[in-house]
TrEMBL record:
Reactions performed catalytically: 2'-deoxyribonucleotide-(2'-deoxyribose 5'-phosphate)-2'-deoxyribonucleotide-DNA = a 3'-end 2'-deoxyribonucleotide-(2,3-dehydro-2,3-deoxyribose 5'-phosphate)-DNA + a 5'-end 5'-phospho-2'-deoxyribonucleoside-DNA + H(+)
Organism annotation: Micromonospora tulbaghiae
Family annotation (CDD domains): AcNei2_N
InterPro entries associated with the record: DNA_glyclase_Znf_dom_DNA_BS, FPG_cat, FPG_N, H2TH_FPG, Nei2_N, Ribosomal_uS13-like_H2TH, Znf_DNA_glyclase/AP_lyase, Znf_FPG/IleRS
Residues in FPG-type domain copies: 226-260
Domain Formamidopyrimidine-DNA glycosylase catalytic: 2-102
Family to which the UniProt record says this protein belongs: Belongs to the FPG family.
Pfam families: Fapy_DNA_glyco, H2TH, zf-FPG_IleRS
Name of this protein: DNA-(apurinic or apyrimidinic site) lyase
Keyword terms: DNA damage, DNA repair, DNA-binding, Endonuclease, Glycosidase, Hydrolase, Lyase, Metal-binding, Multifunctional enzyme, Nuclease, Zinc, Zinc-finger
């Protein structure tokens, strides 16, 4: 699942494939950019901000522009050698192709694809909280933003990119398991909010540079998480059956024994807010 670490890795792939290159062609397959041609533009750098990708370009008139994209649940960028077959995803999912002499970057099922002056990047990502994997990561600011809404559940607050940028559902579930905190705990009642934020940052940082997301240290299939994606399987610590319920707009996984503090009936009805 594309979370901050996946987006960071993707930015690095694009950096290695395209940075410094002069584009020899572009093919946008989204209505809002269908008439855009980046031929002759130079790729300055590729960066991530939370779950947003920023490909910074220099136009032929030297004005700096940014191609913004968001992977959400299912988007991806791949870099291919010229002439290599594009096999990562079906062709109908292609949203953009950027060609350079040494590499072809193909964006699949991208969301929020937009070309804006780099000076206006803040209009796209300025609302984000501190970026867990950014050079300007600010743990104190992230804690401050989380704590500003003490009645909200920690499960929802960690996913709100305005508080801190980069945590998705997988890391949310795993961090709260590792801290022994129920996802329904109000932010104001989380015993050690700075510790929770610090752990989230460490987990994401540990997965930079590899595509397998693991919070257990185990990279083999089926062993990479404690609770995420493990509904009805035994908790790796206590053997209790892992639960899955809706929380806000997303589902959450947790171990009711290791993460106490919320009483949910077996059928999930009448759950606390
Ligand atoms: Zn457990």
């Amino acid at each position: 699942m594309p979370e901050g670490d996946t987006v960071w890795n993707t930015a690095r792939v694009l950096q290695r494939a395209l940075a410094g290159a002069r584009l020899t062609g572009s093919d946008f397959r989204v209505p809002q950019l269908a008439a855009t041609d980046l031929t002759g533009w130079t790729v300055r750098e590729s960066a991530s901000r939370g779950k947003h990708l920023l490909l910074r370009l220099a136009a032929t008139d030297a004005a700096p522009w940014t191609l913004h994209s968001h992977l959400r649940m299912d988007g991806a960028w791949r870099a291919y050698a010229p002439g290599e077959r594009w096999t990562a995803r079906p062709a109908h999912l292609i949203r953009v192709v950027l060609r350079s002499p040494a590499a072809v970057a193909v964006g699949y099922h991208l969301h929020e694809l937009a070309l804006v002056p780099t000076a206006d990047e803040e209009s796209l990502v300025g609302h984000l909280g501190p970026d867990l994997l950014g050079p300007d990561w600010d743990a104190d600011e992230a804690v401050h933003r989380l704590a500003a809404d003490p009645d909200r559940t920690i499960g929802e607050a960690l996913l709100d990119q305005r508080n801190l940028a980069g945590v998705g559902n997988l890391y949310k579930c795993e961090v709260l398991f590792l801290r022994g905190v129920s996802p329904w705990t109000p932010v104001g009642a989380v015993p050690d909010l700075p510790g929770t934020v610090a752990l989230a940052q460490r987990l994401l940082a540990a997965n930079r540079g590899r595509w397998t997301q693991s919070t257990t240290g185990v990279l083999r299939r089926g062993g990479t998480s404690y609770v995420y994606g493990r509904r009805a399987q035994p908790c790796r610590r206590c053997g209790t059956s892992i639960r899955k319920e809706e929380l806000g707009e997303r589902v959450t996984y947790w171990c009711p024994a290791c993460q106490p503090g919320v009483e949910l009936p077996p059928n999930g009805q009448d759950r606390p807010r």
